């Protein structure tokens, strides 16, 4: 069996990266709107209205990969971790899979208390 050279390893990695990019480009639009995707959502969870929509870019810097999340109209500061999980200022030590799950975790943690605006720098 021939030994794997650095050049062939890099070539294989480039081919895999290109094919992964092509696959995401041909994913149907219906899959992008799946309820677990980090896209737009608007629902009532445990009596609280949670929303997620693309960040408009105005105001402060978003760490949420372009999504703004709200609980009862107050912005919930969310951030995407390097591993793809999400955290919020309310449930910082409990990473979840999506911004929607971060909003739900915040509602659970708040236990009926109002979300106060997070002072942005």
Tell me what you see in this structure.
With 121 residues, the chain is an alpha+beta fold. The protein contains three helices and six strands; from the N terminus they run ααββββββα. The protein has a four-stranded antiparallel beta sheet, with helices on one face. β5 and β6 form a beta hairpin. The termini are far apart. 21% of the residues are buried. The model is unreliable at 22-37 (pLDDT under 50).
Share of helix, binned: 25-40%
Mean pLDDT: 77
Strand order of the largest sheet: 1-2-3-4
Rg (CA only) = 19 Å
Poorly predicted residue ranges:
22-37
Q: How are helices and strands ordered from N to C?
A: HHEEEEEEH
Strand content: 15-25%
Q: Structural class from helices and strands? A: alpha+beta
Q: What sort of overall outline do the alpha carbons produce when their principal axes are compared? A: elongated
Largest sheet: 4 strands, antiparallel
End-to-end separation in angstroms reads: 58 Å
According to DSSP, the number of beta strands is 6
Count of helices? 3
Strand and helix map with partners:
Layout: H1 6-25, H2 29-32, E1 41-45, E2 48-54, E3 67-71, E4 74-76, E5 78-80, E6 86-88, H3 99-110
Antiparallel strand pairs: 1-2, 2-3, 3-4, 5-6
């Amino acid at each position: 069996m021939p030994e794997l050279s650095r050049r062939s390893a890099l070539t294989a990695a480039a081919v895999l990266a290109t094919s992964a990019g092509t696959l995401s480009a041909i994913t149907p639009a219906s899959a992008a709107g799946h309820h677990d995707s980090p896209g737009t959502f608007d629902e009532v969870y445990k009596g609280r209205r949670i929303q997620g929509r693309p960040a408009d870019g105005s105001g402060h810097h978003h760490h949420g990969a372009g999504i703004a999340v709200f609980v009862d109209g107050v912005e919930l500061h969310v951030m995407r971790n390097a591993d793809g999980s999400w955290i919020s200022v309310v449930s910082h030590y409990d990473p979840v899979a999506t911004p929607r799950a971060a909003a739900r975790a915040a509602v659970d943690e708040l236990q009926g208390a109002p979300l106060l605006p997070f002072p942005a720098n």
